[in-house]
Amino acid sequence: MNTVLEHRTWRYATKKFDATKKVSDQDLETLMEAARLSASSYGLQPYHFFVISDPEIREQLKPASWGQSQITDASHIIVFANATDFGEELVDDYVSNVSETRSIPAEGLKGYADFMKSKLMELPTEHKSNWTARQAYIAFGNLMQAAAELKIDTCPMEGFESEKYNEILGLNDKNLNAAVVLAVGYRSEEDDTQHYAKVRKSTEELFTLI
């Protein structure tokens, strides 16, 4: 089995973490960089990540996560928060970054900026929020796979009350919404889930070659 598939076979949604094991600062920086380097539509990255290790904050978040132990037992939890709305500043900030990073005069990027604005600015607020959440999920998947390559366990979590997360983390004031949560750490030897066979649809069911 090649390493790409080996990593994907090894990872599973860890249900019980070993609370005594912590992800190193170096590995955590690698995971953060993997998320930062993730693809996003137009490269706009309309999201923000909250990496939470503070035990008091996590105790507050646990009831809003249906009491799931991963919230307090994992080494860290990462909240992927999408922008709930945006204006032209999203594009303008990106174009400024492109200009500086690639040493391109800003006026040479005006056509591309206008194109992005024409596609995004007229969207209803609800559609904007749905679009930014999808972008956050791309980064979410990339970080989860990077963790598997480092043999760091994860549990993707949608079982939480985003409104309460937003309140506890002060996201409403930041124009952000908790879209999805990733618990990161190391599996407990007592987690029976690690021994279960991976259940997926067959290649024939899932793919159509045209």
UniProtKB/TrEMBL annotation:
Domain called Nitroreductase: residue spans: 10-186
Which terms are listed as keywords in the entry? NADP, Oxidoreductase
User: What top-level branch of life does the organism fall under?
Assistant: Bacteria
Q: Does the keyword Oxidoreductase apply?
A: yes
Note the SUPFAM superfamilies from the entry: FMN-dependent nitroreductase-like
**What is a single molecular function from GO for this protein?**
oxidoreductase activity
Q: One Pfam annotation, family name?
A: Nitroreductase
NADP as a keyword of this entry, yes or no, is yes
Family, per entry: Belongs to the nitroreductase family.
Identify the PANTHER family for this entry: NAD(P)H NITROREDUCTASE YDGI-RELATED, NADH DEHYDROGENASE_NAD(P)H NITROREDUCTASE XCC3605-RELATED
Q: What is this protein called?
A: NAD(P)H-dependent oxidoreductase
Source organism = Flagellimonas oceani
